[in-house]
Amino acid sequence: MIRAYTIASGKGGTGKTTVTVNLGTALAHYSRETCIIDADTGMANLGLMLGLENAPVTLHEVLAGKAAVKDAIYEGPRGLKVVPSGISLQGFQNAEPQRLKDVMRDLISRCDFLLLDSPVGIGSDAVIPLAVADEVILVVNPEISSLVDALKIRILTEMVGGAVLGAVLNRTTMEDTELNRKKIEKVLGVPVIDVIPEDPNVRRASTFKVPVVVKYPASGASRAFWRIAAMLAGVRYEEQVEEKREGFIERLARALFRR
Ligand SMILES: Nc1ncnc2c1ncn2[C@@H]1O[C@H](COP(=O)(O)OP(=O)(O)O)[C@@H](O)[C@H]1O
Ligand SMILES: [Mg+2]
């Protein structure tokens, strides 16, 4: 069974961290023991997305040989296990990417799924996650530059003995007709796993430091995340319902009658 996925892209800002956090949360919701790990040790922001920026022990200390993996695991939404990276540059300098393989082995023994949020570039910190995962999921945007960069990552992954599952096309709009699925599959040489629409709720949810699948579970992007997670977990996809919003009258009534 494929269990460790590296979430990668050629350039920054395509949505790797967003995909890692939301797929991880959705997999955890489907009762799968799931860990996510911020292997983007230089530009760590996975912890920031989940309000874990003050975590005392992070992957930095683990990769520097100063802490055990189990001490860097934090509780995320829906029982998700999160290994954040620290935000200090000093911590980044002390981290040894070569240790990542041992960290992954340790985490895999604790969970059904492991998702690695990876850095961009072709340094050892970026290449190791491509080589050590069971499969790589590319996150691409519907732009030529993003596709070209993703293609390089696909080739790099194969060079280091890794395998690519496919690409997730993120931030699509109605105008993306010219770069359709078929063309993207032809350019990248891998299947498009699914399409995630551009959705303002993604950013809205991040201001609350909550994944969009939790904050706005029925929004466009969330639906795609639930679908992809169901596919990976081998369960049936269920429509999620939005929590009912409290109207003005309900809020007023609650304020008046609160004891
Ligand atoms: N489907 C989407 N719709 C709208 N905004 C998105 C979507 N996916 C990602 N974003 C936004 O794009 C920005 C970059 O995403 P991020 O996950 O940090 O990318 P990366 O980790 O690849 O650098 C963030 O501000 C995020 O909120
Ligand atoms: Mg990121």
Features:
12 helices, eight-stranded mixed sheet, 259 residues, alpha/beta, Rossmann fold, globular, 8 strands, binds magnesium ion, binds adenosine-5'-diphosphate
Give structural notes.
- The protein has 259 residues and is of the alpha/beta class.
- It has one domain: P-loop containing nucleotide triphosphate hydrolases (Rossmann fold, 3-Layer(aba) Sandwich), CATH 3.40.50.
- The chain has twelve helices and eight strands.
- The chain has an eight-stranded mixed beta sheet with strand order 3-4-2-5-1-6-7-8, sandwiched between helices.
- The site of adenosine-5'-diphosphate has 17 residues, from helix 1, strand 7 and helix 9.
Question: How is this fold's topology laid out?
Answer:
Layout: E1 4-8, H1 16-29, E2 34-38, H2 46-49, H3 59-63, E3 74-75, E4 81-83, H4 89-94, H5 100-108, E5 113-117, H6 124-132, E6 135-140, H7 144-159, E7 164-172, H8 181-188, E8 192-197, H9 200-207, H10 212-215, H11 220-233, H12 248-257
Parallel strand pairs: 1-5, 1-6, 2-4, 2-5, 6-7, 7-8
Antiparallel strand pairs: 3-4
Helix pairs in contact: 1-11
This protein binds adenosine-5'-diphosphate and magnesium ion (MG).
Total strands: the figure is: 8
Write the element-wise H/E pattern from the N-terminal end onward: EHEHHEEHHEHEHEHEHHHH
State the CATH topology. Answer: Rossmann fold
Low-confidence stretches: none
Average of per-residue pLDDT values: 90
Question: So what's the CATH class?
Answer: Alpha Beta
Count of DSSP H/I helices: 12
Instruction: Tell me the strand order in the biggest sheet.
Output: 3-4-2-5-1-6-7-8
Helix content: 40-55%
Shape-level CATH architecture: 3-Layer(aba) Sandwich
Beta-strand content bin:
15-25%
